[in-house]
Amino acid sequence: MSFWDEKTETMKPGALEKLQLKRLKQVVSYCYSNVSFYREKFRQAGIKPSDIKRLDDVEKIPYTTKRDLRDNYPFGMVAVPCSRINRIHASSGTTGKPTVVVYTRKDLDVWADLMARELYMSGVRKKDTVQLIYNYAFFTGGFGFQQGAEKIGAAVIPAGVGNTRKQIQVMKDFNVSMFSSTPSYALHLAEVMDELNIKSGDLKLRVGVFGAEPWSEPMRKRIEKSFGIDAFDNYGLSEMCGPGVCMECGEKDGMHVWGDHFLPEIVDPESGERADGGELVLTTLTKEALPLLRYRTGDLTSFLDGVCSCGRTHRRIGRIKGRVDDMLIIRGVNVFPSHVEEIIMSFPEIGDSYQVIVSREGQMDSLGVRIEVTPEIFTGSEVQLRDLRERLGRELCSGLDVSVDVELVEPFTLERSAGKAQRVVDLRKE
Ligand code: DLL
Prior knowledge:
Blueprint: H1 6-9, H2 13-34, H3 36-45, H4 66-71, E1 87-91, E2 99-103, H5 105-121, E3 129-132, H6 140-152, E4 155-157, H7 164-173, E5 178-181, H8 183-195, E6 207-211, H9 217-227, E7 230-237, E8 242-248, E9 255-257, E10 262-267, E11 277-284, E12 295-304, E13 316-317, E14 322-323, E15 328-330, E16 333-335, H10 337-344, E17 350-361, E18 364-373, H11 375-378, H12 382-400, E19 404-409, E20 424-426
Parallel strand pairs: 3-4, 3-5, 5-6, 6-7, 17-20, 18-19
Antiparallel strand pairs: 1-2, 7-8, 8-9, 9-13, 10-11, 11-12, 12-13, 12-14, 15-16, 17-18
Residues 91, 140-141, 211-214, 233-238, 242-243, 297-299, 320, 323 line the site of 5'-O-[hydroxy(phenylacetyl)phosphoryl]adenosine.
């Protein structure tokens, strides 16, 4: 077993908590002294940095939200003078102003080190050739992975997004052993590989790291099978650094949140009270340029109990179920698009793309799924298709507790995205 930073990754829990408390006190004082937004928040809450004496005292601090970042666009929450800023990224979001995130030299060094920790954990070494299939414009994905892989000493191909055939050609010709992209784009790469009649055995791929959007266990299996690789889940968000917040180890039983740099909490998204499962809240413990206290990520997950057999002691969270604002309420039943995916992707007859359609008939919302089938099924018999449609409808209804209208469509007809997939089509808004 090997680690990038064994001492830190396997720290005794008591020692890790001690380090977290020391850093929490530091970052709280730092925010209070350098960010007027926090000074004002503390004043309103009637607290002082000296009130943070134990780790649990973090609960005294008010939450920070994406709205706060947007209200202070672009640099209102930055804690350092402009001259110390070394990099600026932004997350586009779907509406309104982008969320701007900035880094000092030290922030970039920490980020690179965390990414090296994660990539090393997935098995990336100096000898590897790494293809990074992310949009490099403002987005943190490509740069994060690039810094980490370079730190390990691997060869990096900053492939960017698009031109799927060329991506596969590069994979083959440059003997790529690891690649990283969104999971939905990985499945599209696999489709195009089929079209080009390139088999996983023609490539040298061993490892894939995927993130930036929710995906499911059946989807992992499909990706692993298509490329003959070991596929890992990686979670992060621009506001913390980008990727580099947490990742799965070889056990693939939850993602380790790097507790030396982030303090994780989970709260009920409605009441804001601590909970075992709910919204992930993160406090940056070491960031200089944009320190954030109790940041509401909007992402839903839960803590996993017990010691991980990989030897790492940093707390684990389960797969991200979706965002608080992704949840659909259909006739009073809460439905997550990720649950729909989990159910349909376990059917081998189903292709690699689908859409969740929400529509309204009168006062009632209804749920549909439009799913691509495999070419074999599509050219098969009417009876087979009807049978598949019925089985899918039954499974979805019993898994989600709401009836679902299933539409099966021809392979490769739904739109593919090179970045984060847009799975939900909300006809109620049209
Ligand atoms: O997506 C950072 C990233 C890049 C992570 C590449 C992993 C790989 P943002 O654009 O700010 O940053 O989007 C962050 O994406 O709040 C989640 O809702 C979602 N997300 C990220 N990783 C995962 C994941 C990057 N593994 C938002 N599973 C987050 C589910 C994820 N959702």
